[in-house]
Amino acid sequence: MPLPALNHWEQTAPHLHRAARLLGPVRASVTDHQPNFLELPMFILPEGLTTGRLPQGGEVICNFKTGQIIYQPASGEAISFAWTGHSQKSLFEALLMTLKSHELAGVLADVPDDQLISGIIEKCTKDGKQIFATFEELSDPTPFAYDAQVASDYAAVQYAIFTAVARFRGWLTGPMTPIVVWPEHFDLSTLWFGTDKAAEHDPHMNFGFAPFSGSHPRPYLYVYAYPYPTEYETPTLPDGARWETQDYTGVHIAYDDIAKQADSEAYVEAACHAIFRSLRALLP
Q: Which pLDDT band holds residue 246 (cuts at 50, 70, 90)?
């Protein structure tokens, strides 16, 4: 079935990103560094995103449908923080204050209550770890102001794309990364590696879905290969896809073209198969 139009997406998107971005440092602060920086990303739910289960058994969820950050401890009732009435800064401070006495007690015990954001950033950047976010990017004072229906619709869009990519991914063999959403750019992504080596600089393809980037204010499906040969012909692409060379080098399918398909998930799944066949020949 067709997907939501995401009208006026540009006004709501940055607010969703600010809320979702808070999950990254929470997870990274209690997760050892992993290959391909997999201590950083969030996992996809029908209603939004989650840190997944943390070491103490709790979980932090960013619910696009209800406009909330939700902390579900290992036992007991969930603690919810509505975005409305908060800025990113005040929301993060409220979440961290709660986690300081629960999930992150061991991480934030020595951090003063008025320095929780800078404190967790410091904890996340020890021992060579990175979170690819500055203090300013995690403490925006702008009040949340978003279209609740568009936010809820994006949860459905994100889960539909996830489902389609997961079905395609089920046909692949060889090393792969899980399908995740990255806090820095808010994009869904999974890597498939062309050899038995699976580090970020090894030959691979990235299948992803970006809510916006650079010169693209609207969402789009993207695929790229790494590394490209020094010389090559533009690959044959499925209907609706084009070859992008401005913001990145690879395949671009506009969300607005995906959304109008009679079966959007089937379209994305088939497009991924066709693109994989075309780009596979470019890898070493």
A: very high
Instruction: Copy the structure tokens of residue 268.
Output: 């994305």
Dihedral over Cα of 211, 157, 27, 96: its sign = positive
Q: Token pair 């060379």 is at which residue?
A: 245
* Residue linked to tokens 């079966």: 263
pTM: 0.97
SS3 call for 72? strand
Taking residues 165-192, report their average pLDDT.
98
What is the Cα–Cα distance from 213 to 166, expressed in whole angstroms? 23
Helices within the chain (DSSP H only): 9-20, 23-29, 88-100, 105-108, 116-124, 148-169, 255-259, 264-280
Q: What is the sign of the dihedral through the CA atoms of 6, 135, 215 and 188?
A: negative
- d(CA 73, CA 60) in angstroms, rounded, equals 8
User: CA-CA distance, 29 to 124, in Å (whole number)?
Assistant: 5
